[in-house]
Design a protein that fits this description.
It holds the Pfam family adh_short_C2. The chain has a single domain, classed as NAD(P)-binding Rossmann-like Domain (Rossmann fold). 47% of the residues lie in helices and 13% in strands. It is built from eight helices and seven strands. A seven-stranded parallel β-sheet has the order 3-2-1-4-5-6-7, sandwiched between helices. The longest helix has 29 residues. It is globular.
Length: 255
């Protein structure tokens, strides 16, 4: 899918960009004309992803970054601006699941790790992206929540809490910068065909098939469909969107 957007002469920053929704979004930004910084905790994978975009004729850099580590986040954003010249758009996508377990049986270390990456990581990325964007008086940020940010899912307490938190962070920051030329919104993707979901399908085939069967459209979304929503939110076409939650989920939350 080739998005009909023009990001020529702009720079985009994408976390969790070594694969799945992050890589699809980085590729979409690149195909729309942007220079792209791909950030991911997997150094080899993110460099390979960036090299692939470069071989296709795009301007891209790969940066190893653990979004739970503020020093690494600050360095990644600073390097993006230093090497690519500016920062216009960001998709804070990095995240992970915890084991599906009843709350009474959950481990505190699993909860803490999910919150550190899915929630604190988004906050850290926004913090350092905004420091650059406010100097220019322009920019667009999309924070990746989930359909789990809008509905409770049993067995996924930590994940659900982290994704609800992303929406709260997004709304608060959006209000802070609404009159300063910076737009911040949240994306709540439904089940999409990504490596994370593929692993869940292998580990829990019956449960995951039930999830897919429950999607009104009767199928998972594609990474490209989710990426297209990110680009729209970062484009002038979404110029009046501030602090909103967009849910490309095949109708799951419409029931």
């Amino acid at each position: 899918m080739s998005p009909n957007f023009d990001f020529s002469n702009q720079v985009a920053f994408v976390t969790g960009a070594a694969g799945g929704l992050g890589l699809a979004t980085a590729r979409a930004f690149a195909e729309a004309g942007a220079a792209v910084a791909l950030a991911d905790v997997s150094e080899d994978a993110v460099r390979e992803a960036a090299d692939g975009l470069a071989r296709a004729g795009h301007r891209a850099i790969g940066i190893r970054c653990d979004v739970a580590d503020e020093a690494q986040v600050a360095a990644a954003v600073d390097r993006t601006v230093a090497e690519l010249g500016r920062l216009d758009a960001a998709y804070n996508n990095a995240g992970l699941h915890a084991p599906s377990v009843e709350t009474a049986d959950a481990l505190a270390e699993d909860f803490d790790r999910v919150i550190a990456i899915n929630l604190r990581g988004v906050w850290l990325c926004m913090k350092h992206q905004l420091r650059h964007m406010r100097e220019r008086g322009s920019g667009a940020i999309v924070n990746c929540s989930s359909q789990s940010g809008l509905a409770g899912i049993g067995g996924l307490g930590a994940y659900t809490a982290s994704k609800h938190g992303v929406i709260g962070l997004t709304k608060a920051a959006a209000l802070e910068y609404a009159r300063r030329g910076i737009r911040i919104n949240a994306l709540c993707p439904g089940t999409a065909d990504t490596p994370m979901v593929a692993k869940a399908m292998r580990d829990h085939p019956k449960e995951m098939q039930a999830v897919i069967d429950d999607i009104p459209m009767g199928r998972m979304g594609s990474s490209e469909e989710i990426a297209s929503a990110v680009l729209w939110l970062c484009s002038p076409g979404a110029g009046f969107m501030i602090g909103q939650v967009v849910a490309p989920d095949g109708g799951y939350l419409a029931r």
